[in-house]
Amino acid sequence: MRLNLNIFLSGMLLISALHVNAQQASYWLTKSDRSVLFAKQQGSLVFNKQESVKPTIIVNDKETFQSIDGFGFALTGGSAQHLLKMSAKARTALLKELFATNKNDIGISYIRLTIGASDLNEKVFSYNDLPEGETDLEQDKFELGPDRVDVIPIMKEILAINPNIKIMSSPWSPPLWMKTTYDARGGMLKPEFYEAYAKYFVRYIKDMKTEGIPIDAVTIQNEPLHPGNNPSLLMVAPDQAIFIKNNLGPAFKKAGLATKIIIYDHNADRPDYPITVLNDPEARKYIDGSAFHLYGGKIEALTDVHEAHPDKNIYFTEQMVIEGAEDDKINIISPVKRLIIGASRNWSKTVLEWNLTSNSENKPFTDRGGCSMCQGAVTIDGDHVKRNVAYYSVAHAAKFVRPGSVRIASNEPKDLSNVAFKTPDGKNVLIVANSAADSQAFSISFNGKLLNCTIGKGDVATYIW
User: Where do the Glycosyl hydrolase family 30 beta sandwich domain residues begin and end (predicted)?
Assistant: First the structure.
């Protein structure tokens, strides 16, 4: 009897040890019917040597791709104004929720600023506005003025919460006196002002650094093939190459700036643009990579550019994501499948959506071309905050795929779009979007073991182990 008892106890200890050593996974879920909105699910899933439930997502951490800089949003002047109108207590709570990395926060890790005004400002401005006919070649009159009222104070609060956040900045237009037409919309940069404009970039980066705001990267021009926005500029690929190789690159080098130079910053329908610029050997030596939006073209174009110049980085820097005020469902799979998964699977180091905040009227925006339908990740009216689809789509990645993570291989079964990462602390993250007409049972295979899961129609889940 004593022998049988010992055998029984040994068996129980072995089972207990196996259970403790079994790899467990947690997961966060957003359901399309809004019954669950980015919430951690109770209990843990366990990887076992069990029969696979078809289809199977096979995650392979031995095959790696690009490293990740972060996920986030643009912070426009309008966004900053909405935040500043909140009470200090409510604003601090919201900024911590957005940018901190604690249990209940989503941990935005990348932000995009505008150099001067964008179309989501109340009015158009640059940092060197002069009457028509006047010039300032040395940027003696350069002044961050308007940004000191809204963007800079908010950025300082964000940096106090997350001092490691990376910041990219993009211009919508140079000062009007540098353009072929003295108009915020359209026109081109006059060649005689290329050098002055390079000094404008240098002043911006240095003056922001003085404010305690380090600019990690700049793009040359937001949407250089869309001169109808307000403000905007037409800058064709050959001109962008000339500006970089003759003016901006040498100016950065002379000033000792480590800020990255990123080209294009427009839709995926024109991969020939960044490839043309990168084909110029004198320009490419100053260029870190290319940036994309997805208002046109296919996300796979990012891979085309990567394959043409595999030593240069890829960034996804803008996409408006909106939902109706009365929607009883949340179309979470659309931005997650197209952007979070799509851009990441096509070599992008970032996924940024447009933009951080709006009010219920989507104001402010400029006249003669500003965006009247651009909804923020959060809608702010006073201290009332509504979290929109952009918030939840970025949260599914930003909270878990921290900067320094590396994309790892995973196959894509039909209707189960996904992307996988290895984080700096050794965790694995898998983001899955179900675009099938019904819920799906499926397995996650990792290192010879299986995790059996079910995901509802139109739902998105992030699995962590």
Answer: 404-456
Do residues 122 and 77 lie in contact, with contact meaning Cβ atoms separated by under 8 Å?
yes
Contact 314, 292 (CB under 8 A): yes
Contacts of residue 139, Cβ cutoff 8 Å, sequence gap at least 6 = 128, 196, 199, 200, 203
* Distances, alpha carbon 14 to alpha carbons 6, 23, 50, 451, in Å: 12, 16, 19, 21
Question: Which CATH entry fits the domain spanning 69-403: 3.30.70.1290, 3.20.20.80, 3.40.50.620, 3.20.20.120?
Answer: 3.20.20.80
pLDDT-derived band at 373 (thresholds 50, 70, 90) equals confident
pLDDT for residue 50: 80
**Please, which pLDDT band fits residue 43 given cuts at 50, 70 and 90?**
confident
pTM (two decimals)? 0.94
Q: Which fold has domain 22-65+410-464?
A: Immunoglobulin-like (2.60.40)
Distance, C-alpha 448 to centroid of its chain? 33
Cβ–Cβ < 8 Å for 154, 75:
yes
Instruction: Residue 295: count other Cβ atoms within 10 Å of its Cβ.
Output: 14
Task: Give the pLDDT score at 80.
Answer: 97
pLDDT for 7: 45
User: Which residues on neighbouring strands pair with residue 57, listed in sequence order?
Assistant: 444
Please report the pLDDT score of residue 325 as a whole number.
60
Domain boundaries, the chain: 22-65+410-464, 69-403
What are the tens digits of pLDDT across the range 67-86? 999 999 999 999 999 999 99
Q: How many angstroms separate the CA atoms of 452 and 409, rounded?
A: 19
Cis peptide before 153 (omega within 30 of 0): no
CB 244 within 8 A of CB 279: no
pLDDT tens for residues 305-351? 999 999 999 999 999 998 876 578 999 999 999 999 999 999 999 99
